[in-house]
Design a protein that fits this description.
Helix content: 40-55%
Largest sheet: 5 strands, antiparallel
Distance between the termini: 174 Å
Number of strands: 22
Structural class: alpha+beta
Strand content: 15-25%
Number of helices: 18
Strand order of the largest sheet: 2-1-5-4-3
């Protein structure tokens, strides 16, 4: 009976043990974690279904194989370390590593390894629970990468950015915020506004934080902070809560854009506008600004004082009421053309004064361009030129009258010249002829004194005739029209020299002397100067004609003169010698001076007694050309 009972009890224990083992096997096979057992030599003893899913090997392929087949080459040493610790009875928990699947791919796992003991407590192997953490690691890396990108983005924002916890402690601040707060990153974490700023500033920041947390959508406000540059900066600040998955605020964040420079620029602009208005209102002229369409944007005080209008006057568009009706079409047409071309506008027009009188104004305006190159506004002035314009009209009338008087005077001069040429010269010819006839017919019977008187009378008449000729030349030089062209002065000088016969005189004419002028007048200049040079060289010598810089010259080796009297040389009838010494009329050099002046030139002389004289003269230079000479001729007075 006892045997039976004992046998029955053994059977019950065996059945219970088998059931427990079956239950344990079911748990192992249904686990999502790989459960592997191995010997202390690293040989696989058991391999559940999850291990097959993780590593790709079936139980038949894995059991009996070394566990090293799952380790990448660079991690083979890990197995020796693990077995060493297992032999010491240590448990290895949540060891993260990398293993190789059957297909050669790598899998990230977290393993927990425990020693297996027999009934006597001896360590006979190891059990390993392996969890595939590839997705978890990928998520962690993505999160880290995202945080790094966020941190990098926030750190390099041009504006300030920061995050605080609900106790007001800073947990993040970008570089701009650190600079503005004047604190290092390592020093900021855990600090509050009270630790960093003046009490009033900290209190204002804290109140705005509380408002942002109260209004879950955040707030937009202005905050000021004195920064390390010593300037109190003003920023537009957006503060908002950061909520957790349950929608509850967990942090308060802020972003700030510094608008100090913009505020300073706006203040400067307002000051500039105020100065402009003050300057414009103080000017004794109309100063105005208009839009592209011509509508007034600004009219200074003088406009309203002049017109008697006010900004509130009915129908006052700035111009239509005050521009003279006759001037409007032309002025507005020109303004429209300037508006289309973008060029400055200028117009003389009449504006109505408060007392009903129209006065002339010179109006000018320039376009103010926008960044896109189009006209945005016009800035202009209108200056009262009424008195000047009426005076100009009167002056023009007087000029016309004077021109008519000069024309009449010229005609009268022509008549006088004709009279001198014919009426005065005829009696002189008769005097000379009579003297000659008396000498020829009665010369032998006339006493010597009478012959001498007749000769003197004839010579005086001849000199008077020569003087009349020179005066006529002087008169014609002032009235004759100049015919400008290129003149070869070298050839002209040679032609003059060939016509002169002075004993002992040689000529040195330089080649290449050329100018722009009237050929006949310039030849007359050379004829007078060369003839004088010869006449005042009674002992002979060389007469040189050349150029020195921009000046032409005629030089002799004659008697010279005292430079104290040089100013008289070019005046009519002024002579430094007597007729007995050197005959002449005293008009030649005056003619030369007039001709040079008409060519916009200058003449002067250098001399020393007994050492000759050099006459220099300039003409309109090659740079001015013929046009400059014509202009000078037009301005000369006959």
């Amino acid at each position: 009976m006892g045997d039976i009972v004992g046998s029955s009890n053994d059977h019950v224990d065996s059945s219970a043990s088998a059931e427990a083992r079956a239950h344990l096997a079911a748990i192992v096979d249904s686990s999502n974690d790989g459960i592997i057992s191995k010997t202390l030599d690293g040989v696989i003893l058991s391999w559940n279904a999850a291990a097959e899913r993780i590593f790709g090997y079936s139980a038949e392929e894995a059991v009996g194989k070394p566990i090293l087949m799952l380790l990448p080459p660079e991690r083979q040493d890990e197995e020796a370390m693990i077995l060493s610790r297992i032999r010491k009875g240590e448990r290895i928990g949540h060891f993260e590593t990398v293993r190789v699947r059957k297909d050669g791919s790598l899998v990230e796992i977290s393993v927990t390894i425990s020693p297996i003991r027999d009934e006597n407590g001896k360590i006979i192997g190891a059990s390993k629970i392996a969890r595939d953490i590839s997705n978890l690691k990928a998520t962690e890396r993505a999160l880290i990468s995202s945080e790094q990108r966020f941190s990098q983005f926030m750190r390099h924002l041009p504006g300030l950015a920061w995050i605080k916890d609900l106790q007001g402690r800073y947990v993040f601040a970008n570089d701009a915020a650190l600079k503005a707060f004047n604190v290092e990153r390592s020093e900021l974490e855990g600090k509050t506004d009270d630790d960093l700023f003046e009490p009033a500033t900290a209190r204002a920041f804290r109140q705005n934080d509380e408002t942002a947390l109260k209004h879950k959508t955040g707030v937009l406000t202005l905050e000021t902070l004195q920064q390390p540059d010593g300037v109190t900066h003003t920023s537009i600040v957006s503060k908002f809560p950061i909520v957790d998955p349950q929608g509850m605020p967990s942090f308060v964040a802020g972003m700030a854009i510094d608008i100090t420079e913009r505020i300073q620029a706006e203040n400067q602009l307002r000051e500039s506008e105020a100065r402009f208005r003050e300057l414009a209102n103080s000017m004794p002229a109309i100063v105005w600004m208009s839009g592209r369409d011509g509508g007034p944007i600004f009219l200074n005080r003088w406009y309203y004082e002049y017109t008697g209008l006010s900004p509130d006057s009915p129908g006052n568009d700035g111009w239509a009421l005050v521009v003279h009706p006759e001037d409007r079409p032309h002025a507005f047409q020109n303004w429209k053309a300037s508006n289309e071309s973008g060029t400055a506008w200028e117009e003389e027009l009449r504006l109505l004064r408060a007392d009903g009188e129209f006065r002339w104004f010179l109006s000018r305006c320039v376009p103010i361009m926008g960044e896109d190159g189009t006209i945005q506004q016009w800035l202009g002035t209108s200056v009262d030129v009424h008195d000047r314009k009426t005076a100009s009209d009167l002056l023009e009338e007087r000029v016309n009258e004077r021109t008519a008087e000069l024309a009449a005077a010229n005609e009268e001069m022509e008549g006088f010249t004709y009279s001198v040429s014919h009426d005065l010269r005829a009696p002189l010819r008769n005097i000379v002829a009579t003297c000659r006839m008396l000498q020829e017919d009665f010369g032998e019977s006339l006493p010597p004194a009478a012959v001498e008187h007749l000769e003197s009378q004839a010579n005086s008449a001849n000199r008077l005739g020569a003087l009349i000729d020179e005066l006529l030349k002087l008169s014609r030089i002032g009235r004759s029209e100049m015919k400008l062209q290129a003149v070869d002065l070298s050839q002209a000088a040679r032609d003059v020299a060939a016509e002169l016969h002075y004993p002992g005189i040689t000529f040195d004419v330089k080649d290449g002397l050329s100018a722009v002028g009237d050929p006949s007048l310039l030849k007359l200049v050379l004829a007078n100067l060369i003839d004088n040079a010869c006449k005042f060289s009674p002992h002979g010598g060389t007469v040189s004609i050349g150029r020195q810089g921009e000046a032409f010259f005629v030089r002799d080796e004659g008697i010279g003169f005292d430079m104290r009297f040089a100013h008289k040389l070019f005046l009519p009838f002024e002579r430094l010698v007597t007729d007995n010494e050197f005959p002449g009329t005293g008009i030649g050099l005056a003619n030369v001076n007039r001709i040079i002046q008409r060519h916009s030139g200058r003449i002067w002389v250098e001399s020393c007694l007994g050492k000759g004289a050099t006459f220099f003269f300039t003409l309109a230079s090659e740079r001015a050309g013929a046009e400059g000479v014509q202009s000078a001729d037009a301005q000369s007075v006959p």
